[in-house]
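To whoever is on call:

I kicked off a structure prediction for a single chain this morning and the downstream step that reads the tokens threw a length-mismatch warning. I double-checked the sequence; it's 428 residues and nothing unusual in it as far as I can see. Pasting both halves so you can look.
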Amino acid sequence: MQAAGRKFDVVVFGAGGFTGRLVCEHIARDYQGKVRWAMAGRDAAKLEEIKKNLVAINPAVEAVPVIVADAFDSPALSSMAQSTSVIINVAGPYAKYGDKVVKAAVDEGTHYCDITGELNWVKRIIARHHEEAEAKGVKVVNCCGYDSVPFDIGTLVVVDHIRNKLGKGTSQVYGLVEDARGGVSGGTIASALNMMAAEDPADVRASTGDKYYLVPPEAGRGSDRPSGMLPSWNPHTSAWMGPFVMEVVNSRIVHRSNALAPQKYGTDFKYREAISSSLPVASLTATLMLVGGAVMAFGPTRSLATRALPKPGEGPSRETMLNGYWKHAAVGLTEEPEGKEPQVVVAKCSDPQRDGGYWSTSRMLLEAGLCLALDGERLKQAGLRQGGVLTPASAMGLVLADRLRSAGITFDVVKSPALAGAGAPATQ
């Protein structure tokens, strides 16, 4: 349990990075004076420069403290953790810079969230800290950005609707990317490369080939298997599905959420993530992923390719982020006796005005941190896990969905046998 009287609600660690600056901007614009927060990182001068820019957005930011702490400085990290209810960690790649930050959080009874997509590192954190964090009532929540909030929470919205409105379990959810536009940052690329270059090749193969990679052994395994690279027809959406690059991360998170849920999603729940489009687009996506995967998997060609890619700290222009958008669908099928057609529930998940990779990601991460810091009683009443190395859905559930809706990100059920009128949304 956390000690009473923490000085801050949240500390943004890695505030000097590209996404860290965006998290701080969201606070300065929308939460300054409503939450107690501080900026943290290793470079005091850089933090002060960013703070000066934030003062132009909101003069009250002048009073926000700056904490100097390096990712390898355990005493400084412990002091930082003692001061706050939640560490929002934006300093990646996490396999390189995250170990001591998580340890400090768990040691000091401080909740923690990040935006990693590095599955190998997440599994290492689970092995090292899950039991202690669970015993202490500390929530360590990975993947709180576009990896994997829209998919993890979108799945939960559909599963919850099927259970509570239709009285059934869920046999399958499709997480479908219908449209998106945005940019790429150097931090994300560095994280992906770090995962590919992990020390244990066997573990890398396991993480990319096993949808149950993050599921606790005692939870058991189902029949879900890798989706493959070839385009396939989805009769429930009347569209083709092509491979989506983030499925390898998000499917593992969704299955861990199911394993940690108070009530399992279904008796043999399956999840597939894909781009929903025409056959030519699905085929082109598959080809590009195969070629790109081959290039990035081989050391020499990976080294050549990375020279032309953005470096850590770099990212898309503000214009690109603010003119971006993403639109997803979560399509759920009910469990039915053999031979009976499933009922179909569709939720639309989107940010129609900002790109997913950075503008939406920074807001998702911030709302996750504030949810952990400020919504503890609601999380307890919802019957969610109170400690451990968790996923967004298992740690914050539909309480986080409510926060994200207030921030402009939609999670609306638009098709279900339970809806009163055809096409009328049923917000969960």
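Update from on-call: the warning came from a stale cache, not from the record. Cleared it. Sanity check on the structure: The first strand starts at residue 8 and ends at 13.
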